[in-house]
Design brief:
The complex is a heterodimer of chains A (321) and B (323). Chain A has a 5-stranded parallel β-sheet, with helices on both faces. With 321 residues, chain A is an alpha/beta fold. In chain A, helix 2 packs parallel to helix 8. Chain A is globular. In chain B, strand 13, helix 10 and strand 14 form a beta-alpha-beta unit. The two termini of chain B are 38 Å apart. Chain B is globular and about 60 Å long. The longest helix of chain B is centred in the first third of the chain and has 15 residues. Chain B has 323 residues and is α/β, with parallel strands linked by helices. Classes of the chains: A alpha/beta (321), B alpha/beta (323). At the A-B interface, helix 5 and helix 6 of A face helix 3, helix 4 and helix 5 of B.
């Protein structure tokens, strides 16, 4: 392992705890009936968005999925506006027009969650095409799940990016579940990254529950892509701890099974044990970050709860320029 | 005035706008080395290079999707669909992504791109290379739809489309490519959303667009010989369509016929007819008439294809019968 600055370690912990606590809060308020629609939680996968976005700037793009809160927060979006959007308030990023599945913050290069599984591949690829045309030193990232690698968009995007040598990194969050179906029952490969070979694309597999591994794997991807040699495929192995959506009865697996896996894979637990054992951080430092996150979550919640819903007259706004 | 083809007019529009705005580029299948399947991009790579005029893989979802992504990152892409029929392949990108991004993200961004879609029947191209599918997009909020009927409008509307910050679908009829028309020299734009009263008349309003404008004129000529003075309106833009122009004309002529090459059922004519019925029924002296294709795919065999086409003699006869 390379040496990590205290600042970066703090960022890892801060981002992961922030996502976790945000999602737990959303889950609670959704179950209480305060959040409309449906939500898909990122709990258990925090290390991936955190490890990837730690190396990105606001000028780099990400395209997200329907499970997009974590990506949005990791990319640096204002927590108040994320929360308000999920509550359907006019102070949210999308003025209440998008909600959980369409959360976006273009000011930090977050090109949107996507309600269509596999909808983000081509958008990220196109953003990379723009970066190349504009001769900028940036990259574009497509987050996606194992299930969406069975969409045609995956294959069309990977081929195009490879043949045009675009600065895009495809980050597969292999959480082993395609909605309610175990991915191996519908997917021809164990490692999704094997598919990169068919597109002459460099790839790497990392432990998606280990933020250090994700960070280092992504840095390697970033260096490769910035040389101009074309796209990179990073597969992060993880496990979806929560149901496909909040309220999913999860008839397809047992609670015990999930708990057992989570006790070994929880990325925050893994991180904490490691930094304490290796004396990279102190318990006090971790607690301070936790307190800071709690304050931010409370503030975001207050902001969302106290914000107005959009007025029905706003229905026609922002359709056309 | 000089005469150039519809195809040359689109080429001029592209070249003029690409010279002005370095963010414009175009991509599609067979457009760069081949010059487009109908020659509508011939010569463009010579001036702008293969970086600005790009041959793509046969990947319609990636063509539209990548144009959207590039638009979000500051470019002004143009996608060529080869045939409008292939828009079906990229439908998610067109209607779930391109059309909705601005609205569902609360106006945070724009998607300034143009989708060029060669449509309509040519010569026995059969069911999957002959369609007119513009009405699909009248039902999808978030896109602009333009349908030029002649060379001058082809240029002026394409230039407007290239400058528009909304996603624009530009339906260009395959038969019209070779048609010559008067096109002014120099800079001009045809505004999006404005219909053109192509011929003034007093007795009936005939509304059409794209290739069917030829049938509208032919019908008007036949009716003229019978002493019926038809007003012919070219919609030019289907989304948004020019409601004011339609109402103004119908209130004057008290009769309405709509003609398009696309399937009649659920077609553009259905929307126009409903709009007029809702807003000007009391002005009408006769039922609204719609003329379009039968409710079948476009058939292949020459006699079948001929029977499928609009027939201005028949249209005129049916209109006359209502007087």
């Amino acid at each position: 392992m390379e040496s990590y600055s205290k600042e970066l370690l703090k960022t890892f912990y801060y981002k992961m705890v922030k996502i976790r606590r945000f999602e737990e809060t959303v889950e609670r308020y959704f179950l209480d009936g305060e959040i409309p629609g449906f939500v898909h939680l990122y709990i258990g996968e925090e290390a991936i968005a955190t490890g990837v976005c730690a190396s990105l700037t606001d000028k780099d793009y990400i395209a997200s999925t329907h499970r997009g809160h974590g990506h949005t927060i990791a990319k640096g979006a204002d927590l108040n506006k994320v929360m308000a959007e999920i509550f359907g308030k006019r102070t949210g990023f999308c003025k209440g027009k998008g909600g959980s599945m369409h959360i976006a913050d273009f000011s930090v290069g977050m090109l949107g969650a996507n309600g269509v599984v596999g909808g983000g591949f081509n958008l990220a690829t196109g953003a990379a095409l723009a970066i190349k045309k504009q001769k900028r030193d940036n990259v574009s990232v497509a987050f996606f799940g194992d299930g969406s690698s069975n969409r045609g968009t995956f294959h069309e995007a990977l081929n195009m990016a490879s043949v045009w040598k675009l600065p895009v990194i495809y980050v597969c969050e292999n959480n082993q579940w395609a909605s309610t179906t175990p991915y191996r029952t519908t997917t021809s490969v164990e490692d999704i990254s094997l598919r990169a070979v068919g597109y002459s694309m460099a790839s790497k597999i990392v432990d998606g529950n280990d933020v250090f591994e994700v960070y280092e794997g992504f840095k390697e991807a970033l260096e490769y892509v910035k040389k101009g040699d074309g796209p990179f495929f990073l597969e992060a192995k993880t496990y979806r701890i929560k149901g496909h959506f909040v309220g999913d009865p999860e008839m397809y697996r047992t609670k015990e099974e999930v708990q057992e896996i989570f006790s070994n894979t929880d990325p925050i637990k893994k991180f904490t044990e490691k930094v304490l054992a290796e004396k990279l951080m102190t318990q006090t430092e971790l607690d301070e970050i936790k307190d800071k996150v709690e304050k931010e979550i409370k503030e975001a919640l207050d902001f969302a709860l106290n914000s107005e819903y959009p007025d029905p007259s706003e229905i026609y706004e922002d359709l056309y320029v | 005035m000089r005469q150039i083809t519809f195809s040359q007019a689109t080429l001029e529009a592209m070249a003029e706008e690409m010279r002005k705005d370095e963010n414009i580029f175009v991509m599609g299948e067979d457009i760069a080395r081949q010059g487009g399947i109908f020659g509508q991009f011939k010569g463009l790579p010579a001036e702008f290079g293969f970086d600005k005029v790009m041959d793509t893989p046969i990947s319609e979802t990636a063509i539209i999707g990548a144009c959207i992504g590039a638009a979000l990152a500051g470019m002004r892409p143009v996608a060529d669909m080869h045939y409008a029929d292939f828009m079906g392949v990229a439908m998610d990108e067109l209607f779930n992504q391109m059309a909705k991004i601005r609205y569902m993200f609360g106006g945070q961004t724009t998607v300034p791109m143009v989708v060029r879609a060669p449509d309509g029947m040519s010569s026995c191209a059969a069911a999957q290379h002959s369609q007119s599918i513009e009405s699909w997009f009248m039902n999808i909020p978030g896109v602009i739809v333009v349908t030029p009927s002649n060379a001058a409008d082809a240029k002026g509307l394409l230039k407007s489309a290239l400058r528009d910050d909304n996603p624009v679908i530009y339906f260009e009829n395959k038969i019209l490519y070779k048609e010559k028309g008067e096109v002014p020299e120099g800079e001009y734009l045809v505004p999006i959303g404005k219909a053109n009263v192509a011929r003034e008349g007093t007795d009936i309003t005939i509304i059409s667009y794209s290739i069917a404008m030829k049938k509208a004129f032919e019908t008007a000529d036949i009716l003229e010989k019978q002493g019926i003075h038809a007003e012919v309106i070219d919609l030019r833009t289907l989304v948004p369509y020019d409601k004011e122009a339609i109402l103004q004309s119908v209130k004057k002529t008290h009769r309405l016929a709509i003609i398009h090459e696309a399937v009649k059922q659920g077609g553009v004519g259905s929307e126009i007819a409903a709009f007029v019925a809702e807003n000007a029924l009391e002005y009408l002296d006769a039922p609204i008439m719609r003329f379009g294709a039968p409710f079948t795919p476009v058939p292949f065999s020459p006699p079948l294809e001929k029977a499928y086409r609009l027939d201005s003699e028949k249209i005129a006869k049916e209109i006359q019968a209502k007087f």
